[in-house]
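Troubleshooting: if your tokenizer reports a length mismatch, compare your output against this known-good record of 439 residues.
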Amino acid sequence: MTHEIKVVVFSFVGLIFFGALLLMMPFAHNGHLSFINAFFTSTSAVCVTGLIVKDTATAFTFFGQLIILLLIQIGGIGYMTAVTFLAVMRGQKLGYRDRLILKESLNYPGMDGLIRFMKVVFTSIFAIEVIGAVILTLRFWENMSFSKALWAGIFHSVSAFNNAGFSIFSNNLMSYQHSLVINLVIPFLIILGGLGYFVLIELYNFKKGRIQRLSTHTKIVLTSTVLLTVLGMILLLSLDSNTVFKSLSWPYKIMAAWFTSVNYRTAGFNTVDLAHLSNPNLFFSTVFMMIGGAPGGTAGGIKVTTIALALIGVWYTLKGDTHAHIFRRSIPGYQINKAYAIIFMASIYIFISTVLLSEFEHLPFLRVLFESCSAFGTVGLSTGNGGVLSYSADFNNFGKLNIIVLMFIGRVGVFAFTAILVGKTVQSRIKYADAKVIL
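Known-good structure output:
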């Protein structure tokens, strides 16, 4: 494992502990707050998940909510990226190792134009979040004072773009179930954050005519995002139109299904009570949450590109073709093998976590699986407590630590986390004769 991956991973660890200590301060919370709950909240914020064991609206003061918001923002862009950006703004020059760390943090494909790319990323984040905050503030202003609406607009815009799903309303966004503005702005902020910075900037350059062709990565991300969102809507409407969406007319059912399907992918906002989801939808939703969003952004999970490459590899293997390709571009075999490895390891982590939680918490397996996949995908959706607190709120300390680890793995990435466990390996120069194994 490279030094750069270690720096990025442990920067998240340090930020989580620092955030937990800040939340423990008397000015940050109301009433009693145990360290495990502060640690859980900090992890959920830094890992932009959204699972909560304390009501953000009532358990934390304004300063506590501000701390959570800052943790979300820094966790979304990456601590090392934020520190490097500040260093560049102060006129400091970055060494080669600093650039490697920044490259790893941003998931940038190369070294050329890295600093320029980082500056554009920060400019884009600021612009998108400000626009989102303005629109949301105007909408919230209809129901509350301007000062409260402004804070709610800023908080939810940052939370949505960073795919966090934290809300300063006790019932999340269920009160805005019929609001067209909320049901459009929040999902679009989530999608923009979940596409990844590389895709956003490439789309902008393509629109401006600076590039003539979108990369294969961008095409895969966009295609996968559309297909998964539409498929999620179809499953929700076909399996739960008379349960979760029973009280809604069809136009609002479609709007609620759209909102929920987008949030399945990477964020934890909800406009309906997911405790009433049918078992088939609970199962299918775990798949969507496990997939997550695109790399190089604010999303967690195994990423849409990983599942896409795995499916492409399976397809061409079944066809007997050793050369996989898509959009008239070949896919290297090592990338497909890496996709298989990520999916396999992610499945192992989720399986172990779910079995342990089911055994020691004595809770329904499917509900625990939903919570585990939500944590791993840094989604934040939950079937517990009527849409207010997460199912994890009822877990003991062992169960909460279990979910904390899953949130961390989902944010830093399966490959990076597993590399820490495996340690540094040296590639062998010895090539043995090929073995014939019957499959």
